[in-house]
TrEMBL record:
Organism: Anaerosporobacter mobilis DSM 15930
Listed name of the protein: DNA-binding transcriptional regulator, MerR family
Residues of the HTH merR-type domain: 1-71
Coiled coil spans: 84-118
InterPro entries: AraC_E-bd, DNA-bd_dom_put_sf, GyrI-like, MerR-type_HTH_dom, MerR_fam, Reg_factor_effector_dom_sf
Superkingdom: Bacteria
Pfam families: GyrI-like (PF06445), MerR_1 (PF13411)
GO MF term (any one): DNA binding
Key words of the record: Coiled coil, DNA-binding
Length: 277
C-alpha cells in the first residue's frame, strides 16, 4: 500500500484534493491507521485516480464523476455504456457553450462598435420576465406624446371616483397601438395595476396580461429619447436572433406623477420577444 503523500506524487493529485475526494466518497483510502489517522491507498487505485483526473480535465464536475461510478465497488453492469452516455452529454453541453460564447463575442463586437460611435444605448438591453398582472386601462387617440398626461389624469380621476383598489406597485405602463406621424394621430393605452378585475366602465376597462419575456432598456431623462430607443431596440431584437411577439410597451418608474424634474424620469422600453428557432 502507499501512504497518501506517495500516492499524491504518483497520481499528480494534491493531498488536499485526495482528502476532499475521501470526504465526498469519490476516492476512499483503502486503509486508515487507527492510531495515527494516516491514509493508505492500494496500487489498484492508481488507475481510478488517473480516471478521475482525466475526467476533471475534460470538464466533468466531481458530482458528475461520482455519477459515472468509476470505483470498481460502485460500477454498474455496463460501465462502458454509462461512460459513453456521460461523454455524449458533456460533448453536447460543450457545443452549446461554444454557441453561447460565439453569441457573446458577436454581441461584444456590436457593443464595441456602438461604444466607439458613442451610442447611448450600448450595453443597455437586458432580457427579463415581465410578471403577469391585472390592469385597469384607458385607450384613446392623442395628437402628441406629451398629451399622454391627459389620459393619466383621466384614469386616475376615475380610479378615485370608483374606489378601484390598485396594487402596491407604483409603476405604470403605456402601449402605443398605432402611430401615424403624418397626421399626428397616436392610438395609446395607459395601464395601472389593480388588485382584481372589476366590471368594465364606459371609459376604462380591465384585463389580465400574461407573463412575457421581453427585451428591455431602461433610461433616465426626458421622453423625447423614446423614439430613438424604439428604433435601436427594434434593430437589437433582429440582430440577436429574436422576433417581436407582442405589442411593445413602456414602463414608467419615475414619471410626472412622482418626479417633477423631467431629467430625472426613469423609463423602461419593453419589447415582448421569442427566440427564432
Amino acid at each position: 500500500m502507499l501512504k497518501i503523500g506517495e500516492f499524491s506524487k504518483i497520481t499528480g493529485i494534491s493531498i488536499y484534493m485526495l482528502r476532499n475526494y475521501d470526504k465526498i466518497g469519490l476516492l476512499i483510502p483503502k486503509y486508515i491507521a487507527g492510531d495515527s489517522g494516516y491514509r493508505y491507498y492500494g496500487e489498484e487505485q492508481i488507475p481510478v485516480a488517473n480516471h478521475i483526473k482525466v475526467l476533471k480535465e475534460l470538464g466533468f464536475s466531481l458530482r458528475e464523476i461520482g455519477e459515472i461510478q468509476i470505483d470498481d465497488s460502485n460500477k454498474k453492469e455496463n460501465p462502458t455504456a454509462e461512460t459513453v452516455k456521460f461523454l455524449s452529454n458533456k460533448i453536447y453541453e460543450k457545443e452549446e457553450e461554444i454557441k453561447r460564447i460565439q453569441v457573446q463575442i458577436r454581441q461584444m463586437k456590436d457593443a464595441l462598435e456602438e461604444v466607439s460611435k458613442q451610442e447611448q444605448c450600448a450595453l443597455s438591453v437586458t432580457i427579463k420576465k415581465i410578471p403577469a398582472r391585472n390592469v385597469i386601462y384607458l385607450r384613446d387617440y392623442i395628437h402628441t406624446f406629451e398629451e399622454e398626461g391627459r389620459l393619466w389624469a383621466e384614469i386616475e380621476k376615475i380610479i378615485q371616483e370608483k374606489n378601484f383598489r390598485l396594487t402596491d406597485s407604483t409603476y405604470s405602463f403605456a402601449i402605443t397601438h398605432k402611430a401615424d406621424f403624418m397626421s399626428s394621430c397616436f392610438d395609446v393605452e395607459v395601464q395601472l395595476e389593480v388588485e382584481k378585475l372589476y366590471r368594465d366602465e364606459e371609459r376604462v376597462h380591465f384585463k389580465k396580461i400574461m407573463e412575457c419575456e421581453a427585451a428591455t432598456l431602461a433610461f433616465q431623462g426626458v421622453y423625447s429619447k423614446i423614439g430613438e430607443i424604439n428604433s435601436y431596440m427594434y434593430q437589437w431584437v433582429k440582430k440577436n436572433g429574436y422576433q417581436i411577439s407582442g405589442k411593445a410597451f413602456t414602463r414608467y418608474y419615475l414619471s410626472p406623477g412622482n418626479e417633477p424634474n423631467p431629467e430625472n424620469y426613469v423609463t423602461e422600453v419593453c419589447f415582448p420577444i421569442k427566440k427564432i428557432s
